């Protein structure tokens, strides 16, 4: 009996220790350790809205990004400082393991911001097939770099023309593989002076059934009620045409019409009703319908004449 009581006490003590120092997944956590935060699965992580990436379009470096979009350990919401100010504070999981703003900025790669940069541009070929320009391509400033959203494009907002001098030559008929010089020529080439990340889709791209949302850089359909009613595995909502469409449209045989609601070939109800009436009246109704259609076509032709 005494042995049984000792065993019960030992089991009870072990259960108390397990409940105090273990997590739900069974791992034991000692009092001196910090519990690890379990990583979120891909399903649990919230997707980043595209509008957030669009707001980053005027960020040019890591310091501006830290100032405007990254939480410091001593604040809940970042106080967006002017772009000219350097980032300050401690960034990281907590202040004990975090880095100062200066230390973090020094480690981050330089952002390939949208700006004019030297790029290779091919020169337009002369109109004459036997004439050639040397050099055939040059380097000139054109917009380059990336934007923070797939809905943005790096485009020029200010351009100018620069004159370059090339050598114009003509292919020699008397000496194969050689050219006759026609002297230097001046050619005008466009260069980009200022660049900016702007929306790819613009208000003029919207249709009559769409409205433009500047913060989202896209056209959205205004007939949302029709979109909500576009249900079923055979149909889908086309956001460009703003209409419900069938996934697998098909050609129907004679006497059948493709129904855009059911996405199937169905009997034409009008034709079926006429056939039933013609069967009952011996074809009189059908013949009168044909005569009426013929008379209508004749009147239409006379009016057009």
Automatic annotation (TrEMBL):
Where the record annotates domain Platelet-derived growth factor (PDGF) family profile, the positions are 97-197
Biological process, per Gene Ontology = positive regulation of cell division; positive regulation of cell population proliferation
The record's keywords, sorted A to Z, are: Growth factor, Mitogen, Signal
Question: Mind telling me which GO cellular component terms the entry cites?
Answer: extracellular space; membrane
On the tree of life, the source organism's domain of life is Eukaryota
Family per record = Belongs to the PDGF/VEGF growth factor family.
Any idea what this protein is called?
Answer: U43-Liphistoxin-Lth1a_1
**What is the scientific name of the source organism?**
Liphistius thaleban
